[in-house]
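Structure, all two chains, one model.
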Amino acid sequence: MKSISSFAIAALALLACEGDHDGGFVDEAVELAFEARVADLPFACGQTYTGLGNDGGSGTPQDFRFYVYDVRLVTDAGEEHPVDLDDDGVYQGGGVAMLDFEDGTGACNNGTAALHTTLKGTVRAQPRHGSGEAGYSEIRFRIGMPEEQNHADLTTLPAPLNDTTMSWTWNAGHIFFAAWGVFGGANPFDLGVHVGSTGCTGDAVAGEVVACSNANRPEIALAGFDHDTSTIVVDWGALFADLSLTAPSAACDVASSCACHSFDPEPLCTPLFAPLGLEWSSGENVAGQSLFRVQ
Amino acid sequence: MGRAGLILVALLGACAAPQDEYEWSLGEGLPVPLVPEDNPMSDAKVELGRHLFYDRRLSGNQTQSCASCHLQKFAFTDGLAVAEGSTGEMTPRNSMSLANVAYSTTLTWANPLLLDLEQQMLVPLFGAEPVELGLRGLEDELLVRLHDVPRYHALFAAAFPDEADPISLHNVTRAIACFERSLLSGDSAYDRFVAGDAAAISESAKRGAQLFSGEKLECFHCHAGFNFQDSVTYEGKPPHNGLFHNTGLYNIDGKGAYPPGNTGLHEFTGSFADMGRFRVPTLRNIAVTAPYMHDGSIATLDEVLDHYAAGGRTIAEGPYAGVGSDNPFKSFFIRGFELSAQERADVLAFLESLTDEHFLTDPELADPWPMP
């Protein structure tokens, strides 16, 4: 009896490894392409864009990078299949990837020439409880990284989590999402957003950060996505859609700079968080993200 | 084996195991600091850390080192109201003394998240708001610079003998943390007085110590214990985190507001009740660490006493005008008091007796690099 049940388990395990029989899915290498734009134009450092903001301002990019993790492809039946991101030692590692759209030219002169616009990984055949008939039709991912990686010692983390330009040392974490630009035409001013967790409290006895009141991790869900043919467009200009860009707003005068560093000021953070589908005061996800679309 | 034999074996074991047991300079009675389990102290790491602490290669443009804002003669502060970073940006706050930083449960003026030095130093090294040492994005270049210095090959190898390639950012932060934990100040005149030398401090300073520790001035509640700081930990005393206090230094809107960008614990928690709450600094060597307060806004110890005697500072005009004593978030120990001229002189004499001349001049803590 005992030997029979062992055999049965082994047979089941074999079946699980085959993977493509009952659900129609197999572990599959995927490349998920992103493309940065400003409205319908390609995003490029050094380029000046017009018609931005709520007052038709102009601007040129300074930075556009963010972390993504928890990537899933979703079936018609709503089943989520995790995508395990490859480790490339530079832009992907530890289950997290950095998407980097700035090439170090123009006003992006604090950046680097290298880009990373395609996520490489393997979508898991499991779970496969769906109909087995249709393919994947939606992609979901989160911006940022898991809490335990966010607050770990930078010097012990793998790339891309050890990038000091995306570290938020004073807040003991990472900048999840950075988008910056120079606006205002003849009287230029910098404006941008750094999104990261805020309201964090640590447990000194355990020597670790335990919780942040505002996680600020956007969950992005994009329907109508075919992982073989679709591109995910991410619109740098859409981030600034609800801000005055011809001249600095009043909120810029009270802050040390014209920027939302997630903590404050409210008049800048609320409109800069909304396009990411984040409600600033709570850090919770709400409907209506306007940054990402499927092409 | 008999009992004596067992004891002999135990003794041999005790002697043989930790050959590089680190010897703390505990002065007249400092407790033994706690250190992170993954970064034990060693003389070799302290020596490497001292070289790094004083090395201008640790700034982006190679104009500053840690020691540029933490000078030994000022008890590892810089004598400025607020510090200037390597690219000319001003920090919002006053450089804190590193004397006895090993005991502090939290680091910097108000951050509740920075619990160890290995983590904290990433702020001056890589921070961009403001730029301090300005190494953001230059960590690979830093390691190239260190590789180019022959002395570092020997220092890193001695400090991290089990590693094939020890010149890493991880080890840079560990070595500097070890050096900082070695910055122990426990040999002031007051320490010698407490240890039994009745002549070590003046009669005036003795009266000042009584006033300091009395319920009239209330100083000792927050400036508590051997380090004159409530938020300390050491062997036998677990850390008690979360000790931050509003002393009524500002009250801009009448509702407790502090100047923007310098709101203390509030910056991290978002809770308005945390407005103006800062960590207690040690009073050791306080006479050489002027100017005072988190923003360096009080020039002398005499004026600091004015602030506390008034139960909070009143600023008559300007953007930060307000009656600090009415700040609704003020610590209830800041109640105000009256001092006679003699009493004031006594308190100042006591504070001056906390200066540790050996600490300020000890060559073991000084710049190890040859003069250019």
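Confidence is low (pLDDT under 50) at residues 1-22 of chain A.
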